[in-house]
Amino acid sequence: MIGLIPTGWYPGAIRVTDDQQHLLVANVKGVGSLSREEPIKGRNSHDHLGSVSIIPIPTPDQLAQHTQTVNANNRLNASLAGLEKPRPNIKPVPLPARHGEPSVFQHVVYIIKENRTYDQVFGDMKQGNGDAKLAIFGEEVTPNHHKLAREFTLFDNFYCSGVLSADGHSWVNEAYTTDYLEKSFGGFTRSYPYEGSDPLAFPTTGFLWDHALAFKKSFRNFGEHTRTTYQPKNAKWADLYADYRDGTQKVKVTATPNLRSLDAHSHPNFPGFPLKMPDVYRAKMFLDELKVWEKQGSMPNLTYLFLPCDHTEGTRPDSPTPRAMVADNDLALGRIVEGLSHSRFWDKTCIFVVEDDPQAGFDHVDGHRTVAMVISPYTKRKAVDSTCYNQTGMVKSIELILGLPPMNQLDLASTPMRGAFTDQADLTAYTHVEGKIPLDEMNKPLTKTKASERFWAEKSLGLDFTKEDLADEDTLNRILWYAMRGDAPYPGD
């Protein structure tokens, strides 16, 4: 290699013109989601626009200039700093300055949710940079999210690195996406590997849990990269909710990991998709296991916890309303944080919360901006952090806490969430909020809907929710908007 040339994201193909004077580079997403200027419409993560870079073959001097540009864009200085060796006799701090230095934390709980933008949830929070017009799941629906953001730190400049669930789960698990996955944005003709089902989407550097296990850290997985079966097969959400409410187990749930590296570490009954199990049921399973850890006096160093019900199933009859599903997700999160903050492990535990992607909504800043939280005794209280962070920086923060080296160049160069922490612990426990929206508030049967409601209910019935993102995204976004805002004009219309 004699030099580097900047292109767009992601360079999917390259050709040299017949006269050998120019490079032609096809960029799958071009210059990103802000390339489409639609100020009236809220921004969405799908607003990327492919491009072709026409680059004159550079002279040696021009190539040197290009190389400097690429090194600056790729944060070479941050990468070099990330390679600094740990220093001896360093006092433990919440987020160590270097990989391998000690942290006050021994346990990380990594909570992954589904498909919300910042404005959809926090747009109504006056403390941050939000747009209340886009806050369809504001404080009435998500009181625990709002209370946590107020009591700890509100992040109003945090971004998903990806677009949708197929690459979103790669970013949260790997801080990376493969060449195969980036080039699949032409249509996902081979697979849609959000749940770890296609080896071509796996990086050679592995997943965060592989990384932790390789460095002798203990690990437990609740729902990530699993496939789920329900018996009886025709079980509905109401049946699972009845099991949760009544303490019965009439519906048998089996969660099978898609990766063998997860087999020995995954809860056998904690589901992913389809969304037949309420998140409060999932939270109960986690809290039941937390009680076992308390009796044993030990808790895993890294815990994955999948809470996907804020994805919703639109206004599909026999499913809960969108606001009920988001309220369910909110209550589950609140109860989990409450349980952890009252446990014997609280003083050494850090909770990271993030959406896998933000595709099912709009944001007035950027379609990638999303909900993120850092919850711990050492998290700054009643603070707002507007530092530009993204999912690779969250992964890097987990690595720094667990004493792990970076997995690849992207987490190596990323910005850790250092602004979230303080050196003084506040062990005040969190108390969850019981929401006002009934979790079993169901969508109306078709026969009881008004004409406008029936239109969207029929659209919902036409969507496939058996697996993640099989449902048409634009249709689902419109269903959610009209379910929450009635006849208010859809953004951009």
Describe the structure in your own words.
- The protein has 493 residues and is of the alpha/beta class.
- It has 2 domains: 11-74, no CATH class; 93-420, Alkaline Phosphatase, subunit A (3-Layer(aba) Sandwich), CATH 3.40.720.
- 30% of the residues lie in helices and 14% in strands.
- The chain contains 14 helices and 14 strands.
- It has helices spanning 60-73, 76-82, 118-122, 143-151, 165-174, 179-183, 208-214, 237-246, 279-296, 322-341, 391-402, 409-413, 451-461, 473-485, and strands at residues 11-16, 22-27, 51-56, 107-113, 153-155, 158-159, 219-222, 226-231, 252-257, 302-306, 349-355, 372-375, 383-385, 389-390.
- A 5-stranded mixed beta sheet has the order 7-10-4-11-12, with helices on both faces. Strands 1-2-3 form a 3-stranded antiparallel beta sheet. Strands 5-13 form a two-stranded parallel sheet.
- A hairpin with a 5-residue loop joins strand 1 (11-16) and strand 2.
- The longest helix is centred in the C-terminal third of the chain and has 20 residues, at 322-341.
- The mean pLDDT is 93.
Summarize the structure.
The chain is 30% helix and 14% strand. The protein has 14 helices and 14 strands.
Strand percentage, roughly? 5-15%
Distance between the termini: 49 Å
Strand order of the largest sheet: 7-10-4-11-12
CATH structural architecture of the largest domain: 3-Layer(aba) Sandwich
Shape: globular
Low-confidence segments, given as residue ranges, are none
Say how many strands there are. Answer: 14
- Helix content bin: 25-40%
Number of structurally distinct domains: 2
What summary fits the major beta sheet?
5 strands, mixed
Assembly state of the chains shown: single chain
Q: What is the fold-level CATH name, i.e. the topology of the largest domain?
A: Alkaline Phosphatase, subunit A
Instruction: Report the order of strands and helices.
Output: EEEHHEHHEEHHHEEHEHEHEEEEHHHH
Structural class: alpha/beta
- Treating each run of at least 4 consecutive H or I residues as one helix, how many helices? 14
Mean pLDDT: 93
Radius of gyration: 23 Å
Reading off the top of the CATH hierarchy, the class of the largest domain is best stated as: Alpha Beta
